[in-house]
Design goal:
Blueprint lengths: L2 H6 L1 E2 L3 H15 L9 H15 L13 E2 L5 H16 L10 H22 L8 H19 L4
Antiparallel strand pairs: 1-2
């Protein structure tokens, strides 16, 4: 992802998932203490969950501009680039790493999957067990980070 892409880039997320999962579950229940975190943190957690599952979920509806890249740290951008590069290598298309719409689609689809995972883990907010859900989510995110960045 080029520097000027970082300065202007927005990522989209399925609008249905924003309301159903981010607003009604993650923010309302304060999953992983994310209630007061910016959307970038939620985005990165969901990205790791989606990558770990190895499944990309297309958006039912696009919501452009939901998250801008500027708030992402350099480490977040490195993780995003690592995910996209690994995905492109599967088809021998590493040279497409600068294709902004392709990068956006890959990342958005993994984030959508992560949101669906959280949605399935908390089917009914009335029965939310914060310790159990937090343990499961942190284990998955940690495992995926270790896989992508061994020895760090």
């Amino acid at each position: 992802m080029s520097d000027d892409v970082q300065n202007a880039r927005t990522f989209s997320v399925d609008e249905v998932l924003i309301e159903n999962v981010i607003i009604n579950k993650i923010k309302k229940l304060d999953v992983l203490g994310l209630k007061h975190k910016n959307n970038c943190v939620i985005y990165m957690v969901c990205l790791a969950l989606g990558v770990h599952k190895g499944l990309r979920t297309k958006s039912q509806k696009s919501s452009p501009g939901w998250t801008r890249v500027e708030p992402f740290s350099k480490e977040d951008i490195a993780f995003i680039n690592a995910v996209v590069l690994e995905e492109l290598r599967k088809d021998g298309q590493e040279n497409k790493i600068t294709d902004d719409s392709l990068v956006n689609r890959i990342i958005t689809e993994y984030v959508n999957t992560g949101l669906k995972i959280i949605d399935e883990m908390i089917p009914d907010p009335a029965f939310y067990d914060p310790e159990l859900v937090s343990y499961e989510l942190l284990s998955i995110v940690s495992e995926e980070y270790d896989r992508l960045f061994p020895g760090e």
